[in-house]
């Protein structure tokens, strides 16, 4: 597993986004993705991560999901 925290400078904008997202109540999103009737599928992507990536990309002027996907594969933030 890669430790992303050690790869970002302390003043990186992604840290600001992550701190903001961690302060949000996303319980409704978590409730909607938890397993029902003991039928578990593949684990869902953490809503905090999805929201943080989307917000950071928006701050950077990136609106394309394909561009976001490409950047997620190539960069730590």
Task: Kindly describe this structure.
- The structure is a single chain.
- By secondary structure, the protein is mostly helical.
- The protein has a domain of 46 residues.
- It is built from 4 helices and no strands.
- Helix 1 packs across helix 3.
- The relative contact order is 0.17.
- The mean pLDDT is 88.
Span from first to last CA? 16 Å
What is the string of helix and strand elements?
HHHH
Overall geometric form: globular
Determine the mean pLDDT.
88
Low-confidence stretches: none
Query: What integer value in Å does the Rg equal?
Result: 14 Å
Major sheet: none
What proportion of the residues is helical, as a percent range? 40-55%
Please report the number of helical segments: 4
Relative strand content: under 5%
Class by SSE composition:
mainly alpha
Count of individual beta strands = 0
Features:
77 residues; mainly alpha; 52% helix; 0% strand; globular
What's the gist of this structure?
The chain is mostly helical and 77 residues long.
SSE topology sketch:
Elements: H1 13-22, H2 27-33, H3 47-59, H4 65-74
